[in-house]
Design goal:
single chain, 9 helices, about 80% helix, elongated
Length: about 200
């Protein structure tokens, strides 16, 4: 007589879907022999709940799939269109904000360019404005003016504006979804140019 397939018996026992008598009948042994072996080897009927949960999930999934209809597809399409419209509106607002910020940055660049074109006039204006305090002999307002129009001050303004424009261009690329090797190469060249300008 062939030896019982104890590996298969253990699997069926642990699964917990069949009674011990049913398992014994399938394998041609007594239920007492299975109980004895289970006690000896420490088998536990611990998988029934997990198997049931998995089966319930599969049934639910198949039931939902079978109920998909034209109405469901229409609802999904409407949901997609509504959310796409919201995203498109936000992206257009972002583009407008970035465009305005770039215009401001460019205007500031123009002001800085005009300032650098006639430094001598700015120096003379500082001399005319000079009005020291009688007690301290200092003119704090004029000192601030001289600092802002000095070479280090102008270089700092250039660096700050270059960094601002560089960031705005990066945001603009995102807003317009400009990707790929060509776009990346153009952005790198502009970024390098901004770095060079910031360094004077």
């Amino acid at each position: 007589m062939a030896s019982p397939d104890w590996e298969a018996i253990e699997s069926a026992y642990r699964a917990g879907l069949l009674s011990i008598r049913e398992i014994a009948s399938q394998h041609g042994i007594t239920h007492g022999a299975i109980n004895k072996r289970a006690k000896r080897d420490g088998w536990e009927r611990d998988l029934k709940a997990k198997i049931k949960a998995k089966a319930d999930a599969l049934v639910s999934k198949r039931e939902v799939s079978s109920q998909v209809s034209t109405e469901t597809a229409t609802s999904e399409r409407m949901l997609i269109e509504a959310n796409a419209e919201v995203i498109a509106t936000v992206r257009m607002e972002h583009r407008g904000d970035i465009r305005r910020a770039r215009n401001i940055a460019n205007s500031l660049f123009d002001e800085l360019e005009a300032q650098c074109a006639d430094i001598e006039s700015l120096r003379k204006l500082g001399e005319v404005m000079f009005d020291p305090d009688e007690k301290t002999g200092r003119d704090r307002l004029n000192e601030a003016y001289q600092k802002a129009t000095s070479l280090p001050g102008r270089v700092k303004s250039m660096k700050d504006l270059s960094d601002t424009l560089k960031n705005l261009v990066g945001l603009e690329r995102q807003a317009y979804d400009i990707n790929g090797p060509a776009g990346d190469d153009a952005f790198k060249k502009l970024s390098d140019l901004m770095d060079d300008l910031a360094k004077g």
